[in-house]
Amino acid sequence: MTRQPDLRAIEQFLFLEARLMDEKRWDEWQELFVEDGEYWVPASRGQPDPLNHVSIMYEKSLLRAIRVKRYSHPNAQSLQPMPYSVHTVSNVMLDSYDEDAGVAEVNSRFIMLEYRRDKIYTYGGAYSHKLVRDAGSFKIKMKKVDLVNCDSVLDSIQIYF
What we know:
Layout: H1 7-22, H2 26-30, E1 33-42, E2 55-59, H3 61-72, E3 84-98, E4 103-116, E5 119-134, E6 137-147
Parallel strand pairs: 1-6
Antiparallel strand pairs: 1-2, 3-4, 4-5, 5-6
């Protein structure tokens, strides 16, 4: 019998990730990823991979670290004034679990509000996470963000989804 991860524990992990982004606790958010963890926002529906196609964002640890450092820098012009966000995560479902590899594939839905320069931007879509067990919790091996409006003209995105 396969011992699947507890769905409530997965939900709590995803809620923590959203909270860390909203509270701008970027270093802690970075620590949620495995060393070679990927963050991907495709630019079109059904995009098969991030390496052979243009993406809105595709980052591994080095690019995420650079972006996080910029988020923390007081002179980052594009972040003046600092944007704020609220992430809501829902409809969390465990799609599959590979017990041998310890990888859970999780799908959820999200809405994110970003407030910047007296404007509110609304983004929504689906998250796909590949999570690996780590010391009683999880780490992110891959986070894919499928924006509902990925193929439309998007303003400059300043905060992670």
